[in-house]
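pasting input
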Amino acid sequence: MTTLVYLPDSAPGPEPAILAPSPTSLAGLRIAVLDNGKPNADVVMTAAAEALAARTGATVTLITPKGPHGLSANAAIPMADDRFELVCAEADIVITGAADCGSCTAYSVVDAITLEKAGKPTVVAETLSRSFGAPDTRLLVLPHPIGGTDAATLGEWAEAATDRLISLFTEPA
Amino acid sequence: MAPETADVVAATAPTSYVPEMAEVAADSPEAMWDLLAERGLGDGLPVVPPTATRVEAVLEHAAGDPDEVLFTLQPRSGIVTRRVVAVNAVMAGCPPETFPVVLTALRALARPEVNLRGVNATTHLVAPMVIVHGEVVGRAGFNAGVGAFGPGNRANASVGRAVRLVMLHVAGALPGSGDAATFGQPAKYTFCAAENLEATPWESYPLSRGVDAASAVTVHCGEGPHNVHDAEADGDPVLILDKIASAMTSLGQNNAPISQAEYFIVLGPEHAASIAERALTRRDVSSYLFDTARLPASTFRRHFQELAWARWMKMVDDDHMLPMTGEPDNIRVLVSGGPGKHSLVVPSWGMTRSVTLPLEA
């Protein structure tokens, strides 16, 4: 005899944020790199930002760890309030990460949603494709691992990612 | 800044929610396999079918509207109501009278200082440890004595399992999507014990944290327990505590690079008695371990590019002996278990804080 049972997986709560409008061109825009402190995150994201700037006429205006006053970074918590304000003031688009583990991916996605809500298109540089709860996040998938890979190789990866970065920032969200 | 702050949720979330029902082939664990497989749910073990009758029996022990949206759990932002909790408690095999303990544990896990998004999503094997305190321990049949961390007791086993099922089903901590744990671990199936108040030579643990209630629940998100065996005849506290300090002093634990991380020290009754006989307080135990569990600053600096430390710890010279945690209060001491010369160290995931709440159904 069939039986009715409750489903144990309740509905998810509030919907993920809608992305900020994408610019049609990156020329003249200011790029921020928001570093979560993971090993080599700053190296690969700075290289990617500089390659993007060289190709598009944008400018890298800010490179900062995501912790308070930019003095530190912990990947397993959201960016500090003062970093959010600084990025909003000094940049038009943002590259953040590196998301190469579970909790840092989750919080880089949280940071990206917060910045998108503030009107700043934000790409999450990640190596493990997990955008839980935010399927529309702009994700730049890089080879794994970033930590432990030499700077020259990271530079090659960053250069090779430029086309993808341009489309992530400019294609309609 | 955190998007999951209460005001944001309140502005956009529904205030009432009733879970859907589905038809299964029979009222049996076998029939539930198909439903779980179809929805990608479950912990891999058989479950009790959550029929309306069974769920209502659990809700007899709830103290409010079964369908009121109480909070959401990250990373999925899954909605928690009393009924949703009761459904998962039935599936886990919980005795109905343990419902308030499951709900209170979840209330605690939803607190921002727990950082549940990180706890669930990380590659680390962190699992929430649930400790039950006070009169509910005896009333609902929890085990605070021999084998408190299992197996063999229904309340301990099923309450820990119910919390895990809610993590899987509601918080979305499914391996590979919401839970990236490299290995997982046995404590992710169930991890619940009771405080042994009769064997505690000091005030209850909740009272020591300022929670004055007949019953309470503590959650701490960390590793599984590490055993410490000291059977020396004199019961010398120095030998006991030095061995505990030795188990705490590991570069593999996230406490090493994260100074806000706590340790839970679960003293066995015999170790607790030996320590208290020498007139040592709970605070003395924490202070001694803070002073003893140390490594040279240079060792920490060599091993960790990322050091989430209190500022003062970054100022000392390389040869300074630094503690494994930022302050003595991060070393939390309680008593559980039965006879034997053993104690436990439960290290932290790191970017999380334990929470103790009064029982609330």
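fyi Chain A has a mean pLDDT of 89.
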